Amino acid sequence: MTFWKNKIGIIALIVAMATMLAACGAPSSEKLFSSFEQAASTESAASAAFEELKQLEARDQKQYNTILDKGERSNVNVQTLITQTMSSLDQRQQAMTKVKEQVTAAYEHVKQAQSQVDKLETAQGKEQAAQALTAYTKRYETVQQLATQYEKLIASERALYEQLKAEQTNLKQLQQAVRERNQQWTQVDQLKQQFNQYTEQFNTNKDAFYKAAGIQTDKANSSK
Description:
Order of helices and strands: EHHHHHHE
Structural class: mainly alpha
Number of helices: 6
Shape: elongated
Strand order of the largest sheet: 1-2
Number of strands: 2
Strand content: under 5%
Distance between the termini: 22 Å
Largest sheet: 2 strands, antiparallel
Radius of gyration: 22 Å
């Protein structure tokens, strides 16, 4: 299973920054730089939510495997574990909601930047800035899809555990519930991978824009 990559350069993007060095067209470059910085600052709290979600998912997956393994023999053996695992479903949903809220709030800064990109000259990294903005927009859209899909995943897991808790279980229905849960996980993983890819694309193009525009930044402690 693919978990969140610990490579969200947008979160701890820059620790120390120098002033703009490019004189020609500096206002547009500076405003765009400011938009990216404000987004990074707004999204900084998402780091903890990403990490919390990663840890919760890893724990739940381990427990899920144990439940299925022992539950094949008798669901009496796993009742306590099922209850514990179900209690963490709300925690995971809350962590996913935090991620969505942080990325959404950060996007409010970046989506206003298109007018500044349009004013850039080619030599100032206009193409790279445009590509960075496109990647960030796709990243935001992916998070919206991911949050929706995650709700479906949590619902499918809850339904599966409810069946496993029942005294009498229908094997056919149980197998269908397992398939449904696994299908939801696959879709969630695909969206996570897309999110990571768009994050990398944004960071790559943003760095290229900064270089072309003559923006000096200290990335010694960047998470890239």
